[in-house]
Design brief:
Helices cover 42% and strands 25% of the residues. It is of the alpha/beta class. The relative contact order is 0.15. It comes from Hymenobacter metallicola.
Length: 139
């Protein structure tokens, strides 16, 4: 059997696509446009399940096309998702920043709020640099 070299689709909904990268990390790729809180919750809950199921502690967040987070999304991410996903273990995230300036601001706000958690994030302007950082992280 040939070795897998391309990321494999794990989950998809209107918010985006979750992919399993053969190098041992999740790719969380956001679609452009508005989204419902329920779709966002389902999307990120599946991201947590992927990390937990595979025993992975690294993810690549591709937010280049993402619309700004709403206040409701930011609150849910901070109060629920960040806490539940880490569960006492360090999680490393390489985040490719959105092109939209307001989306960039909302991502920066979420990252500052998540700073005190077990999530370690680095923000990048391109995929190459984000992947290079993830490759350097040893867990």
């Amino acid at each position: 059997m040939a070795e897998q070299t391309a990321p494999r689709l794990y989950f998809e909904n209107p918010v985006g696509r979750l992919l399993e990268h053969p190098d041992g990390y999740a790719i969380v790729a956001y679609n452009p446009g508005k989204r419902s809180l329920g779709d966002m919750q389902a999307f990120l809950t599946h991201a947590s399940q992927l990390l937990r199921t595979r025993g992975w502690r690294k993810m690549l967040g591709d937010q280049q096309l993402m619309s700004p987070y709403t206040e409701e999304e930011r609150t849910w991410i901070q109060d629920y998702w960040v806490t539940r996903t880490a569960q006492g273990e360090e999680i490393y995230g390489a985040v490719i920043l959105p092109q939209d300036v307001f989306a960039r601001l909302s991502v920066n706000l979420v990252m500052k709020e998540a700073h005190a958690s077990a999530l370690t994030y680095r923000l990048f302007d391109n995929e190459r640099d984000a992947k290079a950082w993830l490759d350097q992280v040893t867990v």
